[in-house]
Amino acid sequence: MKIWATLVMLMLMPAAIEAKEGTVLVVQSYHPSLDWTRLTDQGIADILGPAHDIHAIHMDTKRLPAASHAQRADLAWDEFRRLAPDLVMVGDDDALRLLGPRLAQSRVPFVYFGINNNPRAYFETLPPTMIGLLERTPVIPWLRHLANILPSARRALILFDDSGTSMGIIADTFQKRTVLSVNNLSVRYKIARDWRDWREIVRTGGHDLLVTPTFHAIQNHSGHSEKWTDVIAWTATNSPVPVFSNQDYTVHDAGVVGAFTLQGREHGRTAATMARDLLDGKRPKDAGHKSDLTGRFVFNQKGLDRHGIHLPENIRRMANFQ
């Protein structure tokens, strides 16, 4: 009688305790408090949770010295072998570079996202078990808009930190060139070796506007990462020209003037949808590779006023202000 009662209770228990549809390991290159990482994590959870058993590893390569990155990759690989997941999601270039070849050998399907470089740079041949979503940081479109916003500007500098993300953006944007011509702008780039170098480049000037797509990996004289909030606040205060970025969270009264940015949460959602397709049986060769090219304007009115910038009406209508 007791056995029968137990069976009835199990049949009536809510669907919430049903088995998960698959185990997914998400390996992020950076730390979980970084806004891009936090937002892509949320987007992945939107699509895959709670139906799937999601495990996340954050390698923290923005803040940790490069000499420790291989060890962080080994720890992530140990977790992969322990979990034996049904699918792996790999976020940003460091994780794909360090773990991609090993994942290709494992034959477990995997989905990359947030990749700035060409994925072929990390493999002899593209693995048949891999699909993914490129993060095409809208540098060139942003420069075209900035040429319209600042019609008298002739020289633009793009300032990068010394990171794998920067190398990917530079390779994709400049394609082995040192100077670009975008509308009426002559565009150059520089890579800051450290915090001292970054400040020297900003103070030196010699350009009409400054764009900072990457700044999270700036290290001080002690080899520790500077807080990105301090980097942005100092740059916005001390730059002789208006500063723009590609991250909406840098735009505020003490931050940069404006940004043209991808949406991290939507990027995560798109990548997770691709992952769900594979888990549902879609073949990688039928799922393919995609690029995230979407962007939105974000401005700070105080910053615009401080530099005497009047937005063209077509851009103002589409812009968000914060």
Number of domains: 2
Strand order of the largest sheet: 7-8-6-9-10-11-13-14
Q: What fold name goes in the CATH topology slot of the largest domain?
A: Rossmann fold
Q: Give me the count of strands.
A: 14
> SSE order in H/E notation?
HEHEHEHEEHEHEEHEHEEHHEEHHE
Strand content: 15-25%
List low-pLDDT spans.
1-18
Helix tally equals: 12
The CATH class assignment of the largest domain is: Alpha Beta
Tell me the overall shape: globular
What integer value in Å does the Rg equal?
22 Å
| Overall mean pLDDT | 91
In the CATH hierarchy, the architecture of the largest domain is 3-Layer(aba) Sandwich
Distance between the termini: 66 Å
**Biggest sheet statistics:** 8 strands, mixed
Q: Tell me the name of the CATH homologous superfamily of the largest domain.
A: Response regulator
Helix percentage range = 40-55%
Going by helix content, strand content and strand pairing, the class is alpha/beta
Structural notes for this entry:
With 322 residues, the protein is an alpha/beta fold. The protein has two domains: 18-136 and 264-287, Response regulator (Rossmann fold, 3-Layer(aba) Sandwich); 139-261 and 296-321, Response regulator (Rossmann fold, 3-Layer(aba) Sandwich). The protein is 40% helix and 21% strand. It contains twelve helices and 14 strands. Strands 7-8-6-9-10-11-13-14 form an eight-stranded mixed beta sheet, with helices on both faces. It is globular.
